[in-house]
Write a structure and sequence with these properties.
The complex is a heterodimer of chains A (about 180) and B (about 150).
Chain A lengths: L2 H11 L12 H10 L11 H7 L3 H13 L3 E8 L8 E7 L6 H9 L4 E6 L10 E7 L2 H15 L4 E12 L5
Antiparallel strand pairs in A: 2-4, 2-5, 3-4
Chain B lengths: L9 H12 L7 H9 L3 H13 L3 E8 L7 E7 L6 H9 L4 E7 L5 E7 L2 H15 L3 E4 L3 E5 L6
Antiparallel strand pairs in B: 2-4, 2-5, 3-4
Helix pairs in contact in B: 2-3
The chains are: A alpha+beta (about 180), B alpha+beta (about 150).
Chain lengths: ~180, ~150
């Protein structure tokens, strides 16, 4: 689609929304907006979106699979309320990893099942940490034990585990 | 953050483990799940509805890859005086582009993630927040992602 057509499609679909500038098909974008707050728990959960878009449920499913294979959608599935499940300790590990060891150490950190996110982010003088590992556990002690095992595995002792005291917002990304 | 833990039976556990990373993308996904774990679609639907009411399932839907659709995102932190946390939360959370926000036990105590269609919009949001709160702010965009796989095994 040409850039002009993309702009046109976005404008007609959703005046009030900011424009996402990927080469995203207008029907795909509409589909995501229809189901991003969650599908209903019914025999045919995509039937409403299909009717709204004027396409078959099979096409909805095919489009979703395509969005996943194109990595525009990371996955389709459940977002879990981890607090209700008893995972009430949420420790963000911040690590002072030397620049030349980031790749090697990031790969090791990612192998820990308890680590859900592992990212390299820019360090600064006021915040001298370059690696971030999100660790979920049932107690702070459980998270601390995991961080200690990671520390030993990667040979980095300069780290902090920053616990969340309160969830101020959790919504997931919407377009 | 104490709260009572919801009781789960064997089917609940199987469902929770399955629907996070292996949810079937099909026209009748709940029937497929029922066949997979050896129960009926009715049981799956009623179990999932209960888990949703209990807050264990927030939603079943697409998890959007912001950068995959041409957008950008960041992790930001602000250093907010302890008596101004509520105000800071209100200022930050009013943006739809803010997806997560946590109070943490650090000098930089309010940590939030922002996803936006363009870098200009992202910068605008951070600037507005910093101006309104008049607090030091860290902008920590991902340089490299080694893992993102949220999976709570029960």
């Amino acid at each position: 689609m040409s850039e002009e057509n993309v702009q046109k499609a976005y404008k007609s679909d959703s005046e009030q929304k900011h424009v996402w500038n990927a080469e995203m098909d207008a029907t795909d974008e509409k589909l995501i907006r229809l189901i991003q707050d969650g599908i209903e728990f019914t025999h045919s959960p995509f039937s409403k979106a299909a009717a709204e878009l004027g396409i078959s449920e099979d096409e909805v499913v095919a489009r979703l699979k395509n969005l996943i294979s194109e990595k525009k959608v990371r996955r389709f599935g459940a977002s879990i309320g981890h607090l209700a499940l008893g995972f009430t300790a949420n420790g963000m590990g911040v690590w002072d990893v030397p620049e030349d060891k980031i790749d090697e150490i990031g790969k090791v950190m990612a192998t820990f099942n308890e680590v859900s996110h592992c990212y390299n982010r820019p360090r600064s003088e006021e915040w001298p940490y370059s690696m971030y590992t999100m660790i979920h556990g049932r107690t702070p002690e459980e998270c601390e034990a995991v961080a200690k095992r990671i520390s030993e595995a990667v040979g980095i002792s300069e780290y902090k585990l920053v616990f969340s005291e309160k969830e101020l917002k959790k919504k997931g990304v919407r377009i | 953050m104490n709260r009572k833990t919801v009781e789960l039976d064997e089917i609940d556990r199987k469902l929770i483990n399955l629907i996070q990373l292996s949810f079937p993308v099909s026209t009748h996904p709940f029937l497929d799940i029922a066949n997979e774990i050896g129960t009926t679609e009715e049981v799956v639907l009623s179990k999932l509805s209960r888990l949703k009411n209990e807050g264990i399932i927030r939603r079943i839907g697409p998890i959007i890859n912001t950068r995959g659709i041409g957008g950008t995102n960041t992790l930001a932190a602000v250093k907010v005086p302890s008596d101004q946390i509520d105000k800071a939360a209100a200022v930050i959370n009013k943006y739809d582009e803010v997806s997560h926000n946590y109070l943490r036990n650090e000098e930089f105590n309010v940590w939030f993630t922002v996803s936006a269609p363009t870098q200009a919009r992202l910068d605008q949001i951070l600037n507005e927040i910093q101006t309104e709160l008049n607090c030091p702010l860290l902008d920590l965009p991902t340089i490299k992602q080694f893992k993102i796989q949220v999976n709570f095994h029960v």
